[in-house]
Amino acid sequence: MKHDGQNHRRFSLGAAVCLGLVFTAWAAPILPTRPGPQLSDEHLCVRGIKKVSIEIVGLPESLDNEIARQRMTRHFGRALMKYGFEVDEKVTTPRLRLQYWTATDLDDPDSVALTTLIGVNQKVTVHRLEQALVLPCASFVQTAICRRADLQEMMIQEVGRATAVLGKVVSDVSASGDTR
């Protein structure tokens, strides 16, 4: 059975979404862009975030080298500054962890589905353990499809999009009157 390009894209997008959800389900909640009337704890945990440190924890295998890592760190830092965040590597938490996953369709190996995740790790107290731990508290995920040759540029675009969502949520939550 012959597949057309649209079926390949659907498969790739479906694979990317599933992959992203599987990897983030264990890590932290995926936050909607608009908080409701009463904010969830996941939304409240990002209120007032201004100064952050960043970490690139996962690049696609074909781009996992020091030059690509430095380039993505630069682009991530610029995107964060655009939305009012200050990047300071001396800050322990909150720490924003940037990860990418890719998936390909065996029938069209030149198409790549890209999942981009920004995880917000913060120091929280686990009362049951009576201990402060650094844990993932929120996740912001984007998915896209591109040609393999355009993967690095798509990664830069997607970190910008995911950072925009993060910035909007932090701004909305910080402006809300919910102080529970």
Q: Into how many domains do the coordinates divide?
A: 1
Q: Got a strand count? A: 5
- Beta-strand proportion: 25-35%
Shape: elongated
| Major sheet characteristics | 5 strands, mixed
Kindly report the average pLDDT value. 84
CATH architecture grouping: 2-Layer Sandwich
- Count of individual helical segments: 4
Strand order of the largest sheet: 2-1-3-4-5
The CATH C-level name is Alpha Beta
Q: What is the CATH third-level topology name? A: Double Stranded RNA Binding Domain
> Could you say which structural class the secondary elements and strand pairing correspond to?
alpha/beta
Secondary structure: helix percent: 25-40%
Low-pLDDT stretches: 21-27
Taking the alpha carbons of the first and last residues, their distance comes to 57 Å
Q: How large, in whole angstroms, is the Cα Rg? A: 17 Å
The topology string of helices and strands comes to HHEHEEEEH
